[in-house]
Protein 1
Amino acid sequence: MEKLSNYINGSWTISQENNLVDVLNPATQEVLGKVPMGKATTADVELAVKSSQKAFISWSQVPVIQRIQPLFKLKQLLEENKEELARTITMECGKTLGESRGELQRAIENVETACATPMLMQSEFSENIAKGVDEFMIRQPLGVCACIAPFNFPGMIPFWFLPYAIACGNTFLLKPSEKVPLTMQKVMGLIEQIGLPEGVINMVHGGKETVDALLEHPDVKAISFVGSTEVARYIYAKGAANGKRVQAQGGAKNPVVVLPDADIDTTSRIITDSVFGCAGQRCLAASTIITVGDQKGGIKEALYEAAAKRITGYGLDENVEMGPVITQASKTRVQQLIEKGVSEGANVLLDGRNSAVSGFEKGNFLKPTILENLDLGGELIKTEIFGPVMSLVQMNTIDDALQFINGNNYGNMACLFTSSGAHARRFRNEANAGNIGINIGVAAPMAQFPFSGWKDSFFGDLHGQGRHAIEFFTQTKVTVERWLQDWTRKF
Ligand code: NAD
């Protein structure tokens, strides 16, 4: 198995790093590729930034309407190659084919939205703000913009940034997650065909050393990061200390509140899809399910039934509803967290530990787990599990639930299930989270809206996607001009 190449200045370039780490299929442990990781990737970063910086000089001067033309071609190629890309995502990341197709659709929608950049970048002009004086604001690109991506959406997350960055006139340098580098490797093969000048998009593989080189490089002007909170906090601090614009999306622990007036069938179906979809490895996965008041309809039983019948297996099988978690270490961590919950007094209603899948005995499989009676003062209630575990909690009132949500360190998403408009309206107003779902289990904003995490789920001001992306990838310049009529020669 050959080591993965970087894509620099329009060519596939061999990394200067010889330390190689296996990329494993989480269902089979088959080695899919070898990714360079180590100090020598710093030299790869140097090469890529040089190329990005050179390309920026001319790309930033290309009219915006021409800058978006390659995006139309990219949309077409992503659509034509969707099935192959979906299989690659499933093989390296473990999710089901349906989930892989879904994330690619979201990637394509971001490309489409970025095609509106000629309008989204339009500026403001005020005439005659003083006698003979006009004032206007324009948006100009920043320069080299780098993106550091996580493992859980290899085909989607780079697209929260990439199409907007280049449409605004920047150049873009991607470092994919070392756990899932193959999807963007394939996407770069498509990007090669869309007619972009050399160096407008570059890709460098690697890990921490590669990231640090990006954070320290004076020619990198902006960093878009998505990953765990610990690393997001580090990236934000180090990037800012080095004078960069940073948006850093972090982890999550998403509460979902079920009121007694919620429809049981749809609610239980939607919540189990949210908790167990992508094997719980979504930053918008529902985690703590808070049932409120006197639940006469049997929500607990309905959740149990929906979870217990979920088919776990290799995602390439179309019948499978839940794939493995990303690594053996991740599986062990989730099992230990379940044990931690038990040690804190939780009852295991449904136990998905040690659940091998026939034919895939080496896979990192866990089956759906449901814990109940969690200690609200314990550790597990606060910890992001990032695996297929539902925590059930009972509370007396919606006030208790809101207080619990607002005491949460994370603020990625909060959801409410109800048939009451008044409760929904109050929840939307009072819940301290950046993405709110009402009768929705995964409140993922569409491309036109910002992906609005709060608190420890986001460090920065401007989020990915839509108008926020346009603002993040441009800096404003205001010009004040005086032209008095008396100065003009009369004709
Ligand atoms: P991670 O933080 O381990 O890795 C993310 C990226 O950072 C990778 O490219 C990795 O190479 C790099 N990295 C890792 N450790 C580093 C270090 N010490 N210094 C510098 N760079 C480092 O995250 P992950 O495990 O790939 O992804 C899962 C996490 O991402 C979860 O916490 C999840 O909630 C979060 N996530 C958040 C969002 C969101 O929108 N808020 C979306 C997806 C995932």
Note: The chain has two domains: 6-250+457-479, 254-438.
Protein 2
Amino acid sequence: MIRIAIANQKGGVGKTTTAINVATALAATGWKTLLIDIDPQGNASTGVGVSASAREYSSYDVLVDQAAIEGCVMPTSIPGLDILPATVDLSGAEVELVGADDRAHRLQQALRKDIGYDVCLIDCPPSLGLLTLNALTAADTLLVPLQCEFFALEGLSQLLQTVERVQQRFNPDLGIIGIALTMFDRRNRLTDQVSEDVRSCLGQLVFETTIPRNVRLSEAPSHGVPALIYDHACAGSRAYMALARELITRLPEKRKAA
Ligand code: ADP
Ligand code: MG
């Protein structure tokens, strides 16, 4: 199983939208996919149709109580896609785990054994706290959604520093699979400029596929389905399909490995 963390400490940059739609695209490609929601807001869970009242077990149980992950995942209405949902009690996890020596390794421990998926995507909260640290420690690689806006690169350097620290202390093998530019608006000169700057600064690290600003992407969550299901032909869905294809070409040949 390949473990991919989707992280950026900024909120509202498209992490959850990327997690949901890339997960759906991978599932549609025939990959058995697990979406792991570790944001207490639970937007990824809602976005794949798992309402708060339907969440019997959650990532809280896995991280805090060390429940077996396979007993906590739930199916979604999307074939091939399961979810480990998040609940609000996860917002207390950071404090509850403060005395635990292995607090940064809880997710890694949970994902160590083969639980029957080809890939898992971990949707992180908008911070670099313990929850994101768990994701970066557990992950093989990191996907960073980056909104095309003026301060985009500033936040990125902080994130890359965190990645370096995680590589030194917790997970030497953590890679960065790519940076995905999101909410691109070609009518807006600024987003165009930012996109060019990011590409010239980071080169190959940036995915060729750019995710456009697209109202269908923002409408889909209120219907409890990924945009890819809500309107598979819209520009946003097509971009996420392309991003998933590009992601697959970048992934190492470890899909079936434990
Ligand atoms: P994050 O998880 O980083 O906080 P979200 O994926 O939740 O970000 O996106 C923030 C908001 O922007 C949500 O309301 C989402 O529906 C919307 N959104 C995300 N990506 C796009 C896009 N490409 N075009 C239009 N709206 C988007
Ligand atoms: Mg989110």
Note: The CA atoms of residues 20 and 226 lie 6 Å apart.
